[in-house]
Every structure is written in C-alpha cells, then in structure tokens.
C-alpha cells in the first residue's frame, strides 16, 4: 500500500454516561500517513497518551466498518460496524480487558488530498460504560 505524508487533526470527545453535557475533549495536530488499499482508507500516526506514554495508531475505514489499532502505551484493538456491538481488547498495566463498542456512525468524506473521518460509538470496558465516544480525523496531504 502506498501512503502519503499528511497533517492529521484529531479530535476526541467522550460524553460521560448519563451526563450528556459532561465531555472529555482532546485535540491534537499530528504528522502521519494516509493510504488506500482496495476500498479501505488508512490513517497512520503516533501520539502521546497523557500520563501513559507514546502510542502508534492505525485507523482503517471501509464503508460501514472500521478498525482502531493502538500499539505501545495502552494497546487497543477495537473493530467497529454500524448497528452492531463488536468485541475488542484494551491493554493496561494489569493486563488486557474486554471492550464492547456499539457503533452509530462511521462516515468518511475524502478527496485526493484531504478528507474527514468520523466515528461515533458507545464504549464499555470490562463491563463498565465509558460513554459515547466521538472521534473526528481531518487530514490534508502534503
């Protein structure tokens, strides 16, 4: 797969369960890579996780499916499929925990040199609701 350098603006919002007005929000501007293979779009970048350390991310989006892979600090693998509850894993210092994500939105709008990806899902870790996760990735090639 051929990839190209890109600036990726990543916005993460998590609404606490039962408190729709309470949000944890993180915004980062990162240098990464964007590529295509078949009908899939790939975003690849590294980011620092507060109080944990560096992590390498791969986000794959293809139609009504997506996959979030994080390696390094707090490893994670979370498949997403619109309207389905999918099981994944989340790594901590004490071991791996099961995650479940029920996806509402997987949306991408891309052109040759820029694009937007939006993922929205309800997440639970080890049976406890984390809340609604809203991830927005905006990228520009070059």
From TrEMBL:
InterPro entries: Calycin, DUF1934. Gene3D superfamilies: 2.40.128.20. This is Uncharacterized beta-barrel protein YwiB, DUF1934 family.
């Amino acid at each position: 797969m051929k990839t190209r350098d890109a600036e990726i603006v990543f916005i993460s919002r998590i609404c606490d369960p039962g408190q729709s007005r309470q949000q944890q929000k993180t915004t980062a501007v990162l240098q990464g890579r964007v590529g295509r293979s078949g009908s899939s779009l790939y975003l690849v970048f590294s980011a620092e996780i507060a109080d944990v350390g560096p992590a390498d991310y791969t986000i794959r989006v293809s139609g009504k499916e997506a996959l979030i892979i994080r390696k390094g600090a707090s490893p994670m693998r979370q498949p997403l499929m619109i309207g389905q509850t999918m099981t994944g894993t989340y790594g901590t210092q004490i071991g791996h925990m099961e995650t479940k994500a029920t996806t509402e939105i997987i949306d991408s709008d891309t052109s040759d040199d820029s694009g937007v990806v939006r993922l929205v899902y309800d997440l639970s870790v080890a049976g406890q609701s984390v809340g609604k996760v809203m991830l927005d990735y905006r990228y520009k090639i070059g």
